[in-house]
């Protein structure tokens, strides 16, 4: 998906995202267990566009994967899952990969700008993004999706690698009073030449683990929310939002080729990260 200017997604964009979530063409299944399925697509950067000269043994290093995860969520209402994905304060409790996350400003009643920084498998450098996020209830279903933008007040940090979300989002499909299906689709350029173990680990271990963690967080959310400003849900009630308004003119598209690539292809996995537990608690 190529964008030339910053625009707020319309109904056609949301419809196209739903279609891609359901598509099977071009996807390779890498994981299927316990109601969670993961597929990937491998994309290679068009190096010729950037006039990059490299030796034959380096060819193909600048590649990244599109990941699609689907999880059957029993005992979870679609609206609760939707709230969990929106609630920044709760994310800081359950998402152990988050380093820092906050909302920057609002564009419309269903679109805002936000910052998210996350931990990468050691010893890779951590990544961050600035994204335009938009959301839309569609009947009993919900979609939340985002793509990367630039904001003058939030340039790339020296201690992070600025990644690019080309198209990332969630489709929540209502399957009954206490049942739903979540599809997560992430086309993210990590801006680096990554080692093969990262590609394998992310699709076969990290993605399923993240989905399990989210599932547990959803089960605990209603109780947590009752104790933490239970009526405050600005994603449902826009009048509650205290975010400053941002004009589209303050933003521009974050093109991947304007950011520095780093070569981490020869980095070995940290010993302490080779084994990990799926058990993660939510406070």
Labels describing this entry:
two-stranded parallel ribbon, 4 helices, 13 strands, disordered C terminus, globular, 283 residues, eleven-stranded mixed sheet, alpha+beta
Topology:
Layout: H1 11-22, E1 28-33, E2 36-44, E3 63-74, H2 78-86, H3 88-94, E4 98-108, E5 111-118, E6 127-138, E7 141-151, E8 161-162, E9 164-174, E10 179-189, E11 192-193, H4 196-227, E12 251-253, E13 262-263
Parallel strand pairs: 6-8, 11-13
Antiparallel strand pairs: 1-2, 2-3, 3-10, 4-5, 5-6, 6-7, 7-9, 7-12, 9-10
Descriptive account of the structure:
This protein has about 280 residues and is an alpha+beta fold. The protein is built from 4 helices and 13 strands. The chain has helices at about 10-20, 80-85, 90-95, 195-225, and strands spanning about 30-35, 35-45, 65-75, 100-110, 110-120, 125-140, 140-150, 160, 165-175, 180-190, 190-195, 250-255, 260-265. The strands form 2 sheets. Strands 1, 2, 3, 4, 5, 6, 7, 8, 9, 10 and 12 form an 11-stranded mixed sheet that branches. Strands 11-13 form a two-stranded parallel sheet. A hairpin with a 4-residue loop joins strand 9 (about 165-175) and strand 10. The longest helix is centred in the C-terminal third of the chain and has 32 residues, at about 195-225. The protein starts with 10 loop residues before the first helix and ends in a 20-residue tail after the last strand. Mean pLDDT is about 85; it is low at about 45-60 and about 275-283.
């Amino acid at each position: 998906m190529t964008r030339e200017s910053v625009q707020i997604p319309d109904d056609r964009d949301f419809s196209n995202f739903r279609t891609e979530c359901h598509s099977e063409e071009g996807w390779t299944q890498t994981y299927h267990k316990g109601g969670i399925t993961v597929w990937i697509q491998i994309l290679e950067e068009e190096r010729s566009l950037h006039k990059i000269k490299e030796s034959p043994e380096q060819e193909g290093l600048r590649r990244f994967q599109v990941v699609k995860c689907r999880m059957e969520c029993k005992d979870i209402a679609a609206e609760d899952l939707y709230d969990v994905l929106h609630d920044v304060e709760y994310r800081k409790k359950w998402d152990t990969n988050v380093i820092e996350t906050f909302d920057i400003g609002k564009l419309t009643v269903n679109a805002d700008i936000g910052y998210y920084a996350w931990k990468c498998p050691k010893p890779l450098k951590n990544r961050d993004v600035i994204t335009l996020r938009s959301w839309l209830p569609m009947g009993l279903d919900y979609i939340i999706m985002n793509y990367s933008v630039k904001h003058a007040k939030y340039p790339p940090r020296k201690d992070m690698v600025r990644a690019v979300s080309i198209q990332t989002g969630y489709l929540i499909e209502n399957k009954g009073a206490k049942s739903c299906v979540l599809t997560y689709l992430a086309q993210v350029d990590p801006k680096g030449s990554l080692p093969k173990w990262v590609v394998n680990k992310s699709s076969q271990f990290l993605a399923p683990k993240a989905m399990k963690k989210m599932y547990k967080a959803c089960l605990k959310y209603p109780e947590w929310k009752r104790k933490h400003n239970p009526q405050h849900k600005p994603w449902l009630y826009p009048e509650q939002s205290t975010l400053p308004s941002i004009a589209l003119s303050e933003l521009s598209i974050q093109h991947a080729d304007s950011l520095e690539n780093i070569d981490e292809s020869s980095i070995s996995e940290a010993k302490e990260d080779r084994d990990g537990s799926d058990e993660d608690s939510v406070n």
